[in-house]
Each structure stands twice: as C-alpha cells, then as structure tokens.
Amino acid sequence: MNKIYFVLATWFGSGLLPKMPGTWGTIFTFLIFWFLPEFSALVFVLIILVLFFIGVFSSQQVEITHGHDAQIIVIDETVGYLISVVFLPKTLFVWLAGVVFFRCFDVWKPFPIRKMERFKGGFGVMLDDVLAGVYANLVLQAFLNHGLHG
After folding, report:
1. Is residue 69 part of a domain?
2. pLDDT value at 149 more than 60
3. What are the tens digits of pLDDT across the range 17-53?
4. Containing domain of residue 38, as a range?
5. Considering its fold, how many domains does the chain have in total?
6. Are 85 and 140 in contact (CB under 8 A)?
7. Which one-letter DSSP state was computed for residue 39?
8. Arithmetic mean of pLDDT over the chain
9. Helix (H, G, I), strand (E, B) or coil at 120
10. DSSP string, 46-91
11. Does pTM top 0.90 for this prediction?
12. Is residue 150 a part of any domain in this protein?
C-alpha cells in the first residue's frame, strides 16, 4: 500500500491516536483549518469536494489491509466536519459547536445516516460522515438563525 494513501486516510496519523480516533481526526481538522486563513465559500466547497474524492480513494486503499471502515480511517471525519461548518461564520463558538454536533450525529447515526454505511468501498466510508456533517450544519444554521451564537 502506498504510504501517501495511509497518511491521507489516517489524516496525517491522527486516526492512529488511542481510544477515539474519529474524535481525534475531527479535532485535528478543526485545528488545521482554524489556523488557516478564511476561505471564500466557493474555495471551501472545492476543498471539501477534493478531500471527499481523496477520501474515497485513500480509504478504499487502506481498507484492503485494515478492513472495511477501519477505525484508523478518519479522512471521512475531516470531510464531515468541514461540511458541518461550511457557509457558517468562522467564530470559535460555531466551529467548536460544529465539532460537538458533527461527532454526535456521527456516533448516533440517525436515519438515514446508518444506511450510508451499506455502500461498499470508499463511498461507504465517506457517505455517512457527509450526511452527519449536513445534519450538524443544519442544526447550526437553525441556531444561528435564532440568535443563539457567540
């Protein structure tokens, strides 16, 4: 297996951290993007799309040796988290709330998120987190539209 696939699928090794690899991957994504300059909405969406397809391919490669949706694969959390905050203001409150809501939906997997896991290969790895990110984003949008932000 090419090392670059492993590095990307584990999101630079954050998926190798003990106990909660998905949470570590999400936190690592938050930290990387928090300290980057703010992107336009179009650039942010393009980044998400590129990472989605990189995630599909790299996770599929890592699955060959580590099994379907192995816990060390966290690029799906990266994409899901970024979806949870896209089109939202880059404030500490919103972005940290994005971490919390995304992880809640990712773990809880309300309908139809769990059904996305039935897809084979890299798409099966990525799609449940994409939908968890959409759910988290909708909740945050609702909070922001009702004045509950910092």
Report:
1. yes
2. no
3. 989 999 999 999 999 999 999 999 999 999 999 999 9
4. 3-145
5. 1
6. yes
7. P
8. 93
9. coil
10. HHHHHHHHHHHHHHHHHHHHH-TT-TT--HHHHHHHHHHHTTS---
11. yes
12. no
